[in-house]
Design goal:
268 residues; alpha+beta; Glutamine Phosphoribosylpyrophosphate, subunit 1, domain 1; 4 helices; 19% helix; disordered C terminus
């Protein structure tokens, strides 16, 4: 299966430290060698880097690792292919426009029976179930709210409603962001940590690298990191129970709902 990495902050922050460990899992310390990608929200834009090569061998990944791009929301993915060939168009994260802003999605899992009807407003380019899910989610949001963007709480409630029917049909871990907040669904495995003052020293699991966050932050900084598996071995990561949907905003977990599996009857 794939692995996910997300970051949500209250002030623009770089993800170089976390990405250093995450990159090693893409064919180095783990088997996720079928491509990788990362998306940084920056104002109304998104810097999107994709590569179908293993991240541990990728020159683009080395650039990202050493280039401190500061962002409020970041989504990264390393791929172990289940559906779709190892190609650029099948590399996560995926990006689309809705309501005049970019949305970014990455998925860890497999929903082999999911075959929704798409109306053409959002169409997959590749042939993964992940991109199909993303297109269906955005189509469903547009059908529900039309041309008027919903409030943050209404959006979260609707994502919960859309996630629940799929939660029992396969593995469905995902990260989704519209640049305002970050949504995370734990189907089988996700953890998070919130770093805030007083900041401490952190040590990566996958590489012998340490950072003293007290030297590179201000007392007001707050950063939430979400990952399939904890990236450090000396911090109190919180396990997100399977079957939960979370909303992060300004570096806090501000909402959580259970996703109760139910049979899929109609996904149009």
């Amino acid at each position: 299966m794939c692995q996910l990495l997300g970051m949500n902050c209250n002030t623009p922050t770089d993800i170089c430290f976390s990405f250093t460990g995450f990159q090693k899992r893409g064919g180095g310390t783990d088997v996720h060698a079928d491509g990788w990608g990362i998306a940084f929200f920056e104002g109304k834009g998104v810097r999107l880097f994709l590569d179908p090569q293993p991240s541990v061998q990728s020159s683009i990944a080395e650039l990202v690792r050493s280039y401190p791009i500061r962002s409020l929301n970041v989504i990264a993915h390393i791929r172990k292919a289940t559906q779709g060939q190892v190609t650029l168009e099948n590399t996560h994260p995926f990006m689309r426009e809705l309501w005049g802003r970019y949305w970014v999605f990455a998925h860890n899992g497999n929903l082999p029976q999911f075959q929704p009807e798409l109306n053409g407003s959002f169409m997959p380019v590749g042939n993964t179930d992940s991109e199909l899910i993303f297109c269906w989610l955005l189509q469903s949001l547009r059908q529900r709210f039309g041309d008027t963007p919903p409030s943050r709480d209404a959006l979260f409630a609707t994502l919960h409603e859309l996630t629940c029917p799929l939660a029992g049909t396969g593995i469905f871990n995902y990260l989704l962001s519209n640049g305002d907040c970050l949504f995370a669904h734990s189907s089988t495995e996700l953890s998070y940590i919130i770093r805030r003052a007083p900041f401490n020293v952190a040590h990566l699991k996958d590489e012998d690298v340490m950072v003293d966050f007290s030297q590179v932050t201000t007392p007001d900084d707050r950063v939430a990191i979400i990952a399939t598996q904890p990236l450090t071995d000396n911090e109190p990561w919180i396990t997100m129970p399977p079957g939960t949907l979370w909303m992060f905003h300004e570096g806090e977990a501000i909402a959580r709902l259970e996703t109760i599996p139910s049979p899929v009857k109609s996904l149009k």
